[in-house]
Amino acid sequence: MDDTARRAQAARNTCPFLTAKQTAFHLGLGYSTLKAMRAAGTGPRCRRHGRTWRYHIDDIEAWSRANAKGDRA
């Protein structure tokens, strides 16, 4: 494997972008629920990469924190 292929593989292994299915699983939501939230503008911030919607892990975590309920004493 040449250096370019090795670097590309490393980037894929450490990519901070999740697919919609990965994001739904991470959040404990159904894929269709996440899709509906994206359409309504109520879900985590996302980006379109080609034909695929991607969610950055930082955006997922920020959305989750912003939607937390209750006090933590």
Automatic annotation (TrEMBL):
Superkingdom: Bacteria
The Helix-turn-helix domain, residue ranges: 17-65
SUPFAM superfamilies registered for this protein in UniProt: Putative DNA-binding domain
One Pfam family recorded for the sequence: HTH_17
InterPro entries assigned: DNA-bd_dom_put_sf, HTH_17
Protein name per the record: Helix-turn-helix domain-containing protein
Organism: Stakelama marina
Organism taxonomic ancestry: Bacteria, Pseudomonadati, Pseudomonadota, Alphaproteobacteria, Sphingomonadales
